[in-house]
Amino acid sequence: MSTKVLEFERPIVELEGKIKELKHLSGGSQEMAAEIERLEQKARQLQRERFAKLSPWEQVQLAKHPDRPYTLDYLGEITTDFVELRGDRAFADDPAIVGGLCRLGERVVMVIGHQKGRNTKENLYRNFGMARPEGYRKAQRLMRLAEQFGHPVICFIDTAGAYPGIGAEERGQSEAIASSLELMSVLRVPTLSLVIGEGGSGGALAIGVTDRILMLEHAVYSVISPRGCASILWKDPEAEQAAAKQLRMTALDLKTLGICDEIIPEAVGGAHRGFTQTAAAVAETLTRHLDELFSLSVDALLAARYDKFRRIGHLERA
Amino acid sequence: MAWWRRKKEALEPDSAKSKNSIPKGLWSKCESCGEITYTDELVANLRVCPVCQHHAPMPTAERIAATVDEGTWQELDQELRSGDPLEFHDQQPYPDRLARAMRSAGPGDAFLSGLGDVDGVPVSVGFFAFEFMGGSMGSVVGEKVTRVFERALETQRPALVLSASGGARMQEGVLSLMQMAKTSAARARLREAKLPYISVVLHPTTGGVAASFAMLGDLVLAEPKALVGFAGPRVIQQTIGQDLPKGFQRAEFLLEHGMVDRIVPRLEMKEQLGTLLRLMMGAPPRPVPPEPEPTDDGEPDGDGEPVAAPS
Ligand SMILES: [Zn+2]
Questions:
Q1: Along the 311 residues of chain B, how does pLDDT read in single tens digits?
Q2: pTM assigned to the model
Q3: Least CA distance to B249: which residue of chain A?
Q4: Is B16 exposed, middle or buried (0-12, 13-18, 19+ CB in 10 A)?
Q5: Which chain B residue is nearest to residue A314, measuring alpha carbons?
Q6: Contact call for A257 and B175, based on CB within 8 A
Q7: How far is the alpha carbon of B184 from chain A, nearest alpha carbon, in Å?
Q8: Is there a contact between A209 and B184 if contact means CB atoms under 8 Å apart?
Q9: HEC sequence for B93-131
Q10: Does B67 contact chain A (CB < 8 Å)?
């Protein structure tokens, strides 16, 4: 199942392998069952302890884990009637961003999210979840559509960043991101963003100017990738581990800095090792925040959204 | 530019000697064509090379003087200072970098904001200071830009921002990133109030500044050859593994691809800003400056000869 095991996942993966083997050998014996139960408890304990003290660099690796659930995985698990809507009506459809109408519980919602590929072929198609201008323009179109019909917008953030390429620049990558930021700041419906993996810079924020900013426990959100930061400030891309620490990019950091409103706990070992449980927590949290936001008038909603971003920053006075 | 040619020719015969004898800073060499210009004259020409029209980098104080009408510039928000919210330490601590930047570029961080008249039009205006940590946007810059828009609303003036920035300031991490949202939200309020906002993009404007308010002007003007884009050329080159086309991300490229309204030479910028602002606001045209009064002898100057003979 697993395509990649990170170093800090190895002990637990090995223990789980042993348990599986034992189960197979035991053939349902009562004596063995007790031993298996003990080992399983030990495995959970080991995992909990290890994951409680992940370094920032380990968090970054986990956020980019190739087995991690992506936007469409969550939509498949927690929504019904999802119908994908495509195209920016100007140039192309960008498969690095998906979007469409669906139901979350009783409520109709517009969902938009970065979409990574699971294998090389998919990644070529999805451009590794790195959107071009048409991706952001599609997102804007879908947001306006949601506003027109009074549906809330939920954005799933999971990208290394907006794509840096010739065509992307020719078609105005900066304008596309900028106009997304502006549109989201005045959209007259409740909006949520949830970082499910990588929150990479402007390409992430372009669908993240929302009433609530939520993060999965092992997601990260940063102004630049640790590697990019290390190349520029340390003049050495290999200093990425130090950069990851300095950038304060874990969910807990974002909560401490007053940017993330709520951290959604993942299954022990990460969302990819307990998807159903993680997805259930996601559905519950999204629904709860929408309930809260729908209790506000549109004017109050917009005023609160403006204040939320207006307050972000650290100022000192001479 | 005949005046210039003459000077150059005069200099040539003993250029070898003068190389050693010119006091540093008195002469400037054009980065583009190699022309040597008397620095005072270059500054008077807004640092535009009189031979090849190359627009050399301009210190922010000179930029303000060239843009805002004399005696009308009122700098505000001067009390704001960057802190070190992340306790960021790369090869040197962020506070050390800040202290050095303040010594060399002044205390205003990478953005100066205030009120002033541009070609006779009162505006809420801000200038990026590229010489301060590459014009990078941290909390202070984001706050000042936001205040330019908010002050435009309060005073019912148009907003004007001249950008030159490498993007978000990494040392303030995600707080810097979020300034893109904060400034764009403030810009949105100005749009709703139907007040004009002109963005001038200077060399270079990239990253989080380009990807927020700098590309959100009602009008976007660029200086000739200014590099403007989301990703820096080096990053793009590394990503795609091929050479970039000539002129890529330059102002002329942006104009061709429909990303800016006009390329405006520096020497015409102030006047064009005035004309455009008046047009956008439906204001009357610039008053025609009065003919200079001849002051030579024998001309009437008001209290000389009587206008009419006494009856
Ligand atoms: Zn020149």
A1: 333 333 443 343 344 444 444 456 799 999 999 999 999 999 999 999 999 999 999 999 999 999 999 999 999 999 999 999 999 999 899 999 999 999 999 999 999 999 999 999 999 999 999 999 999 999 999 999 999 999 999 999 999 999 999 999 999 999 999 999 999 999 999 999 999 999 999 999 999 999 999 999 999 999 999 999 999 999 999 899 999 999 999 999 999 999 999 999 999 999 999 999 999 999 999 888 778 777 665 444 444 444 444 44
A2: 0.92
A3: A169
A4: exposed
A5: B139
A6: yes
A7: 5
A8: yes
A9: EHHHHHHHHHHHHCCCCCEEEEEEEECCEEEEEEEECCC
A10: no
Pick among A91, A174, A181 to test the B interface (most B CBs inside 10 A): A174
Closest C-alpha among A241, A169, A255, A249 to residue A201: A249
- What is residue A150's three-state secondary structure? coil
Residue in chain B closest to A317 (alpha carbons) equals B80
Closest CA to A112 of A160, A90, A79: A79
- Residue A51, classed as helix, strand or coil, is helix
Q: Could you tell me which chain A residue has the CA closest to the CA of B142? A: A313
Distance CA A277, CA A193 (A): 20
Compute the nearest-CA separation of B58 from chain A (Å): 24
Q: Which superfamily does CATH assign the domain made up of A60-310 to? A: 2-enoyl-CoA Hydratase; Chain A, domain 1 (3.90.226.10)
The answer to whether residue B82 neighbours chain A at the CB level (below 8 Å) is yes
Nearest in space to A157 (alpha carbons), one of A78, A86, A70, A87: A70
Where do the domains of chain B lie, and which CATH numbers do they carry? 1-56 (no CATH), 57-281 (3.90.226.10)
**Whole-number Å distance between alpha carbons of B226 and B203:** 4
Residue of B180, B192, B240, B248 to mutate, interface with A, max A Cβ within 10 Å? B180
Rounded to a whole number, what is the largest CA-CA distance in chain A? 74
Residue B264 C-alpha to ligand 1 middle, in angstroms? 18
Burial class (CB in 10 A: 0-12, 13-18, 19+), B288: exposed
- CB distance B54 to B32 below 8 Å: yes
Out of B78, B89, B231, closest to residue A169 by CB: B231
CB contact under 8 A, B81 and A205: no
